[in-house]
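Sequence only, no structure available. Ideas?
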Amino acid sequence: MKFHITEVSLNKKLGAMSCSSSSRDTCPPSCSLKQLMLPDGSEREGPCYANGFHTAMHWDQVDNGKRGVNFTSFIEKLSLMIPVPRFRGQQVGDLPGKDNKLDKEKCIKYADTVRRHRHPFTYTHYPVTPRAALDEEVEYNGVAYRLKLPKVGAALAAWNKAIISRMMRNYTVNVSCDSLNQVDEAVALGLPAVVAVPRGTPKVSSTPEGVRCVQCPATWDKDTNCANCGGTKGPLCWRKDRDYAITFPAHGTWRRLTEKILTAVSKGEE
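Reply:
I predicted one. Tokens follow.
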């Protein structure tokens, strides 16, 4: 695992703020946008937004060590930074972990270090509730891909949930969901949730269990980004006690493929 800190981001969606990145090997296999299987059994990268051109070039350099450093060096740099007004974790990549299991020691160390900064928030695709294995066909541009996601047992889900809950004392960790059902499950555990949705989803919608969903304002207001979202009250994704989930419409080069995957996930959960 490798990590990187950008003290002042040039990413227009983030705005001028500090953020971190993690290497691809931190991403759990439970993320539906991580990879797809080709008809010949080989694998290709999934339509994660971070695989887009400019972001992917940065991510590659985190992976190969040109920008990425080990966890100890990352924490040291984070602890020596002048406290910043906002800190977004994992603009690419995920929290420290392997396969679908979070690394308890590293995650807690990370959260306890980042607390010196104001309004710190991040996201994770590590599963917090049990899930059945999923195997669904996803047709895109004439190719029949297969989306295969592993089973998540109750003990593993409880492990991740406990670690995230501990991190939440100092760091807002948003559970990244791939369906509205997953949002309901995360919210039922008392965790803040975000979810990818198809284009055309209303700015304000709701889940099957009635949880309100509000679209990220940076996706529809050109003057809003993570650096100014929410004004003096802090960014929406930082508000750990909010009573709504935040939606991110599919976007980028592979937005149609993303939508097909989201449909496949929802179908597999039925």
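The chain has one domain: 3-269.
Hope that gets you unstuck.
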